[in-house]
Amino acid sequence: MRAAMALACAVALAGCGADMPAPPRIDGEVDAWLDAREATFDNIVPGTEKRVLWAGETGERTDWAIVYIHGFSASSEELRPIPERLSDALGANVCYTRLAGHGRDSEAMAEPRVEDWLADMAEALAVGERIGERVMLIGTSNGGALTAIATARYPDRVDAAVLISPVFGVPRRGAFLLEWPGARIWLPWVLGPTGGFAPENPDHALYWTESYPTEALVPVQRVIGLAQDAPLNEAEAPALLFYSPDDKVVSPEAIRTQMAEWGAPVTTVEIPAQEGMDPSNHVLAGDILSPALTEPVTQRILDWVAGL
């Protein structure tokens, strides 16, 4: 019996390996490409779709392409209006992606596997290459970890990386259990059937998924594991890191540890808890949760880009 259980665990764990696929080839117009993929779903929250905001004429490439990757349970609205302000200042096209399961309903959050998010990240990178000469990835939390993975996996395809509270670890004991075989089955029995949060305001409730099945946490832990194992020393793009030592969602210590391995110059901006900031000290900009930080974070990014 023990031998059978050991074999089952070994088989399950052997299937846990995941890698970011190569960015796909986009045939035809970018807008049509993204629209076709989003047309598969009939319950996407308006304004959270995968899309491109063109700085000039539709289809015209710009020097910089800004690609935004949102965090877990969030959407493209998480950091706005920062990407648009960067676009205005740099004359850059902007790509907003939508990670699988997000921007829909609670049940949809249980659908994606980590491979789906890696594919979304690869697709977003491909869009960035189509719409700009240089690609700047901006990722928050789970999106920050995916940004780190992509930059390490495809160092010659990313020109700048902005990481906001990237999740390289969480301050909760036992989080590693989420990577154990069968976690999607037994997790609801341990943590309860649903997880979530109390929204801070109506837009927070609208553009985030405030309640989700507990098993939706499994791919997040998989991303954390992949980010911890990623060859960050092979990253060639300079990085701008924003994090708070007071973050209540992810581990600041894990952020410092992982980013110390980055293979290119890292500029670090530490943001302490303050008024007008996300009460969790996690989403460190954007008018919905951290309105007081939108302008200073925007300006800090622009100053950094000017020096590249």
From TrEMBL:
InterPro entries referenced in this protein's UniProt entry, alphabetically: AB_hydrolase_1, AB_hydrolase_fold, AB_hydrolase_sf
Keywords recorded for this protein, A-Z: Hydrolase
Ranges of residues in domain AB hydrolase-1: 65-190
Signal peptide span: none
Molecular-function annotations in GO: hydrolase activity
A Gene Ontology term for the protein's cellular component: membrane
Full protein name: Alpha/beta fold hydrolase
Organism from which the protein derives: Palleronia sediminis
